[in-house]
User: Which sequence fits this backbone?
């Protein structure tokens, strides 16, 4: 018997083109042509796929049979738990864009280098959907109507950025033999290239996406606290709290996947240095934070570098960051934060820099 191997797992997503065929008002679940212009293969990932089907039997009916007689699939479903232990710019741009929905891309002159600013779409605006194809154990399926419900990026000192996401399909699936698109070759996002700043109160001043500067702070009208040397770990998450909409006449799959009240999560850990951050909690000061990761140059002669910038324009600390540590330990502080609206900016902004021209673009 020749057994199947888990390392021979293939996955591609149409991260460069969303479901939006020309002339169709209802793009959801319409699919995407899976080629290297619209899609890419993923590498360095794990993806647990579940068919979240609603299977109904007749055991609660009178059938004259002790154990019932029939069973049917009433609604199909598909969920994907996607993870990268060592994330790359392409993955962060595609997954964050899929979950938050708003993407504006700009080019570095005429070079093959681009900045993609990702923000949550306005309330009432739909988030995009894509097609995903997966081959495992020699079985290949195409899934349509895939939307991002949540994602999280995280990291610890001396390490790299990790990425995980919960994706949800409409339930539409079919066997496929489509050739897998090429993968995007990029280096991991290393945290030894990341600067971090925090600002408080009236000195908070958030740069617009077009004005973001790599390697420099973008959150202050004064001099923010540079905390990169003290930072031990961080987590940022976004959750759309979505739900599928089967409706009537959907043929057994979702007719849409709608977000609920969206939520952002921010946690981080610092070496304890002074009472400054504890005072922020006591006084309930509004705070802003920026993680600015700047790697290698994308294109010779250009001004953009592979990397990611994450800005949370307004949050407050919800639990006292008291110093912790035992005998012989270096004291640390754990921060749990409530991400808030500031009335001007998005609740969070992510800028990704790489050599890909666009993400989740409409069909030409």
Assistant:
């Amino acid at each position: 018997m020749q057994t199947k191997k888990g390392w021979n797992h293939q996955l591609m997503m149409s991260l460069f083109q969303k479901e939006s065929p020309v002339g169709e008002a209802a793009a959801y679940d319409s699919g995407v042509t899976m080629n290297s212009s619209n899609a890419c293969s993923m590498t360095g990932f794990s993806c647990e796929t579940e068919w979240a089907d609603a299977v109904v039997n007749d055991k609660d009916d009178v059938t004259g049979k002790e154990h019932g007689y029939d069973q049917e699939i009433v609604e199909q479903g598909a969920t994907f738990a996607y993870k990268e232990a060592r994330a790359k710019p392409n993955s962060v741009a595609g997954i964050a864009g899929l979950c938050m929905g708003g993407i504006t891309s700009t080019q570095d002159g005429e070079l093959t280098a681009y900045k993609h600013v990702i923000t949550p779409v306005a309330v009432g605006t739909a988030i995009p959907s894509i097609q995903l194809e997966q081959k495992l154990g020699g079985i290949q399926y195409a899934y349509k109507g895939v939307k991002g419900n949540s994602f999280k990026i995280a990291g610890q000192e001396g390490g790299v950025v990790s990425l995980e996401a919960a994706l949800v399909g409409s339930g539409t699936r079919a066997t496929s033999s489509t050739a897998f698109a090429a993968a995007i070759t990029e280096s991991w996002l290393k945290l030894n290239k990341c600067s971090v700043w925090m600002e408080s109160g009236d000195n908070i001043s958030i740069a617009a996406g077009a004005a973001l500067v790599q390697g420099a702070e973008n959150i202050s009208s004064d001099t923010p606290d540079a905390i990169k040397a003290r930072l031990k770990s961080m987590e940022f998450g976004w959750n759309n709290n979505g739900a599928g909409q089967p409706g009537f006449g959907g043929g057994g799959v979702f007719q849409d996947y709608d977000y609920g009240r969206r939520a952002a999560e921010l946690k981080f850990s610092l070496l304890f240095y002074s009472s400054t951050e504890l005072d922020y909690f006591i006084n309930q000061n509004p705070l802003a934070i920026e993680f600015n990761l700047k790697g290698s140059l994308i294109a010779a002669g250009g001004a953009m570098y592979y990397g990611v910038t994450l800005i949370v324009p307004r949050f407050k600390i919800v639990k006292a960051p008291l110093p912790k540590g035992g005998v012989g330990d270096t004291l640390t502080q754990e921060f749990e934060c409530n991400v808030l609206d500031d009335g001007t900016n998005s609740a969070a902004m992510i800028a990704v820099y790489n050599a890909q021209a666009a993400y989740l673009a409409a069909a030409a």
